[in-house]
C-alpha cells in the first residue's frame, strides 16, 4: 500500500508538471498576460494501478486546459496497460471589467457601471470582454449583478430602429452628399449593416 500511495502521488506531480508546461502552448498569448494556477486533484484512493515503467500524461480529445477539467494518464510500458483520468482545475487570473451595481436586462452599459478588477477568467467558459469597445454602449442581454465579470453573450449592440421605421439615408463622397428618406426593411443595430 505504501508504494502504491507513493506512485499515485508521483502521478499527481507528473500531471501538474505536464499541465504547467502545456498551458503556454494551449492558451497562446493569453497565458502570458494571465497568472495561471494549476490544482491537481486526487485519484480515487481505492484505485490500485499496476506498476508501470512509462506513464504518459495526455489531454483527452475535446478537453481544454481551462477551469475544471481532466488530464489523462496512461501506462504505455507495463505488465498491464491502464488509463485513468485525473481531475485538474486551471485558474487564470487577470484584469477584467466587473459590474459594480445592478443592471437590468436591456440597460445600456456605461463606464460608470463597471470597474476593472483581477478575476479568474477560467471561472466560466465564455470569453472575457477585455477591450472597452467590446462592451461600452452595448445593451445587457440579461440582468447583471455586482461582481459579475463582463463576458461574451452578456451584452449585445444597441438597436436604434425597428424594421418598418422611417429612416434618413445619407451618402457622402468627395464633394457631394446625397440624402433621402426611406423605410427600414430590417432592424438597425449599431455597427451592423441594415436594409
Summarize the structure.
16% of the residues lie in helices and 38% in strands. With 195 residues, it is of the alpha+beta class. It is elongated, with a radius of gyration of 26 Å.
Which SSEs are present, and which pair or pack?
Elements: H1 2-27, H2 29-33, E1 35-40, E2 52-58, E3 67-78, E4 83-99, E5 114-120, E6 139-140, E7 155-156, E8 159-161, E9 166-173, E10 176-183, E11 188-189
Antiparallel strand pairs: 1-4, 2-3, 3-4, 4-5, 6-7, 8-11, 9-10
Structure description:
- With 195 residues, this protein is α+β, with helices and mostly antiparallel strands.
- The protein has 2 helices and 11 strands.
- Strands 1, 2, 3, 4 and 5 form a 5-stranded antiparallel β-sheet that branches. It has a two-stranded antiparallel sheet with strand order 6-7.
- The longest helix is centred in the N-terminal third of the chain and has 26 residues.
Tag the structure with descriptive keywords.
195 residues, alpha+beta, five-stranded antiparallel beta sheet, two-stranded antiparallel sheet, 2 helices, 11 strands, 38% strand, elongated, disordered N terminus
Largest β sheet strand count, sense and barrel closure: 5 strands, antiparallel
- Mean pLDDT comes to 85
β-strand number: 11
Note the beta-strand portion. 35-45%
List unreliable stretches of 5+ residues.
1-6
Helix content: 10-25%
Intertermini distance? 73 Å
Radius of gyration: 26 Å
- Principal-axes geometry comes out as elongated
**Class derived from helix and strand content:** alpha+beta
Instruction: Quickly count the helices.
Output: 2
* SSE order: HHEEEEEEEEEEE
